[in-house]
Amino acid sequence: MNTTTIVWICLAVLLALVVAGLIVLAVKRSGKGKRQTPPAVSAAPAPAPAGGEEGPSHEEEAASAEKEKAEGEAVAPAAATETPEAPQSRLVRLRAKLARSSNPFGKALFSILSQDNLNESDWEDVEDTLLLVDVGAEASERLVSQLRTDARVQGSKDPQAVHDMLRAKLLDLVDPGMDRSLAAERPESVGKTSAIIMVGVNGSGKTTTSGKLARLFVAEGKSVVLGAADTFRAAAADQLETWGSRVGVPVVRSDKEGADPASVAFEAAQKAQEAKADVLIIDTAGRLQNKANLMDELGKIRRVTEKTLPVDEVLLVLDATTGQNGMEQARVFAEAIGITGVVLTKLDGSARGGIVISVQQALGVPVKLVGLGEGPDDLAPFDPESFVDGIIGDED
User: Fold this and answer.
1) Where does the record place the SRP54-type proteins GTP-binding domain (predicted)?
2) Are residues 202 and 310 in the same domain?
């Protein structure tokens, strides 16, 4: 074998070794590049719902999710308006409330008049007791005079007879024959808008009473518009709007504090007329009776309102606890704007309810409504018999 042959054999062997090495290397790289798939694990079945029922399908779950989403995005409905207590129901309730709030002066009178023989000092005590509860000097003198000349009192030993006599005399002074109805409730007002202006001093409760009166009319099935003509106190218009919103009653107001109250009254009258409302209630700013310019403003409010609607009622709101000071208020307001009736607030528990008698006799106008609590429906027509029974209570 020559040298050339040996060289070619060596080259062939070397080439074979190189090729074999390349093949082995390629196989190793191929094995490392492959990812091993983990063994499959069987998912445990979901526990069945209690009672053996099948769980919701994917479609049902999707539908439920969509429903919840829609409900979450839905706009909350507007708050429902309230339903005020019916007039007859509240009258029965407030009669009982007034009867439970009998004040001491009736019992004091009864104690004096039940004596066998009354001397001059006893009669003076009777008159003093009447004056203490603001019956008024003229009315007190009249009642004492009637009692002194009544044969049933002189020498009477029957407590029930004395009680009945006292009740009859007080009821006569309260005068149950006065017309206490509101113009809006009369048959001739059907189909017309009855305008009411609320007046009174600061703190008498005009705005609250206006809101409660609106509720009373709504309870009677009447449509109402409120006019916020108290433009000097920003909170008054807000307060009136709160009252109105609770029973679905619109409120006409000015967004400008200190605006002309007469212009608000005029706008309210126009809105009430356009809406063909049954009642327009105009709340005015509280004012002291000795402020001539403010009292003149009430006259202007009335004149401007009457350019659109006749004013059927001017109601003076009086705090029953003010006593004879309330009488002076009543006289000045009557001269400034004219008064058709009185609303007595805080009459429950007041030992000064005699103002009912004195204000009616001084002005010749009736007490038409009374407030007997802080509840929204604690305003009711004045009932003379319940009032007198609340004063003297039951004979023991």
Assistant:
1) 366-379
2) yes
State yes or no: 205 annotated in a binding site.
yes
286 known member of a binding site? yes
305 has binding-site annotation = no
Question: Does residue 70 lie within any of the structural domains?
Answer: no
204 labelled ligand-binding = yes
Tell me: is residue 211 an annotated ligand-binding position.
Answer: no
Q: For each successive 10 residues of the chain (396 residues), what is the average pLDDT?
A: 67 70 62 41 38 43 41 40 83 71 67 75 85 80 82 60 81 91 90 94 90 95 96 89 95 89 96 97 83 82 96 92 75 85 80 77 90 88 83 61
Structural contact between residues 280 and 227, judged by C-beta atoms closer than 8 angstroms: yes
C-alpha to C-alpha distance for 324 and 233, rounded to whole angstroms: 27
**CATH code assigned at 104:** 1.20.120
CA-CA-CA-CA torsion sign (287, 289, 291, 296): positive
Residues 203 and 281 in one domain: yes
Same domain flag for 201 and 153: no
- The letter for the amino acid at 22 is L
Residue 283 in marked binding region: yes
Residue 323 is assigned to a ligand binding site: no
Query: Which residue carries 């309870």 as its tokens?
Result: 219
- Structural domain boundaries enclosing 164: 87-174
3-class DSSP state for residue 226?
A: strand
Residue given tokens 């990812």 in the structure block: 35
Same domain membership, residue 112 and residue 213: no
Last residue of a domain, one of 140, 174, 208: 174
Q: Does any domain span residue 40?
A: no
Report the amino acid identity of residue 353.
G
pTM above 0.85, yes or no: no
What's the number of domains the chain is made of? 2
Query: 57: annotated binding-site residue?
Result: no
Q: What is the pLDDT of residue 40?
A: 34
Instruction: Let me know if residue 11 belongs to a domain.
Output: no
Is 78 annotated for ligand binding?
Answer: no
Q: What are the DSSP calls for 304-339, one per residue?
A: HHTTTS-EEEEEEEEEGGGTHHHHHHHHHHHHHH--
Q: Is residue 69 within a helix (H) or strand (E), and if so which, with residue range?
A: helix 58-73
Give the helix ranges, DSSP H, for 188-323: 206-219, 234-246, 261-274, 292-305
- Going by C-alpha positions, the residue among 336, 288, 287, 338 that lies closest to residue 311 is 338
Same domain? 308 vs 243: yes
Rounded to whole angstroms, the Cα distance separating 269 from 252 reads 9
